[in-house]
Write a structure and sequence with these properties.
Ferritin, homodimer, mainly alpha, elongated
Amino acid sequence: MTLTYFLLFLAASAAAAATGIIFKPGEWYVGLKKPDFTPPNWVFPVAWTYLYVSVAYAAARIAPEAGSQIALALFAVQIALNTLWTPVFFGAHRLWLGLLVLICLWVAVAAMMLAFLQLDMLAGLLVFPYLVWLTLAGALNFRVWRDNPRAGAQT
Amino acid sequence: MTLTYFLLFLAASAAAAATGIIFKPGEWYVGLKKPDFTPPNWVFPVAWTYLYVSVAYAAARIAPEAGSQIALALFAVQIALNTLWTPVFFGAHRLWLGLLVLICLWVAVAAMMLAFLQLDMLAGLLVFPYLVWLTLAGALNFRVWRDNPRAGAQT
């Protein structure tokens, strides 16, 4: 049964991951002024692949536990927000709105991590790198918004 | 506790709904050849608002039940795919890929309806209009793809 859960959470994550293939950074992103801490481009797909798989595994660990429903509801919230961010930022070039989505996503993932921790220590710990990565992504999104006043759709 | 669930599922649905505000149909959609059964534009936000709220309520009904985890995992899959469709179709103009996303979404929602039905009859029935709407949306997406060979990104 845990394999069924893993495949379902992986399917949800694949929908989120697909946005990164459909809405590529492209010339627009290359031309942006970016902060010193911006990771090289190759880091993004590697980091996201690791995070999607490890969080799907973490969710599959806690899903069969009694009382996992709030944790699973939080998984649904974060995967929908995760799917939303890439089209908003790379598709619509809405830098400020992207930052707002990331802040909501960060809160949802932090709540999910706490819910996972209460059910299974390892599952909760597996979510921690996701939260760290979102913190970096949020800082990057903020600086891109602040430092490129004419690059986005201004909202 | 059911209110907490309802608000969480509504938050996930809000992320999906936001795509409809960010990626509006616009001139491109107006210029497409559309089938006779295309609903007038005002129907779409009304139908989606009803569907998002009623499915969030249905999910909140089944969430506290023992053994609801598979149903909740399926909720996560469908809300991620739902969030993906609008940017693919209205953002990237990928008509065929949009149809593929809709087919996956239809399968996920059908499975979710069956899972809900086993837990709570009313919750399952509340998902049925969503499946009917997706069937219509799939037929519309198919016809737009078939009848507008030069309108999309051709994938």
